[in-house]
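hey can u check if this looks right to u? its 280 residues, i copy pasted from the old doc so theres a chance i mangled smth
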Amino acid sequence: MYIPGGYDDAALPVPVIIYIHGQYGNSNTVGLELPFSARASQPVISIYPQGVDDHVSSDCGTGWNVGPMGHDADTCKPASYGDSCCYESCRAQGLCDGDGKAADCGWSTCMDDEAFIVDIISKVSSELCVDESQIYLAGGSNGGMMVHFLYSKHPSLFAAVAPVYGLPLKGHIDVPDALNKTSIFHLHDRSDDVIPEAGGFAGGWEYESADSVLEEWARVHGCEEETTVKKTSYDGGKYNIACVEHAKCASKKSVVKCLYDGHHGSWPDSGELLFSLLNL
């Protein structure tokens, strides 16, 4: 966790942004690569939780429990078996009994990561001067999938969410109507062959497309069905950044997708675009 230098002098409660790392990720590394507190134009508390690796034999890394889509036999093909793992916490719950095919499309821990993230927010809010109307959630890859899972379970908790090159697995789009007070900003690289922005199969798993997810968000917010160009101060440039939005939302919130040149795991900057979209 990083508390900004201006925090002690803040006249008002400060926003919080939580960034969830991807599979095999490390919170300390991500905190250095994406120093959100240093990039924001105002004091912001940034938190980088650490995922758990409780593998038994094959090691799929420090992933996050993204709920039912973490063990859904309808979401993968045999091509995924080489990267499928049955973690100790999953075995204990009877969700799998071995790696590969026996992992039942599993690839991450079954720890209660939902409660873990919610408890972090509760503890920080009780011990620091936090603006609880400005709690933001972002995450990359498996962390982005965790973002989708968390907003579906806690639709009133976040002011905005930002999944980055992370999408739900096929059949797991869940956008409750109560999200009509939350904005979404989806960032994705154009050349992603791990979690493709257009959805479909990759690595043996089948993903929903970003457009399919955002169409559900547009419905909840009462936005236009078709997207239009959203101009930002970061358009073009080295990464060819381009954003679109479902405009004229009845909720007055934002439903935005930004694409940039790159591959899975790449960012177009160190968080400047994201903070611009979040107005932080």
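The longest strand covers residues 130-140.
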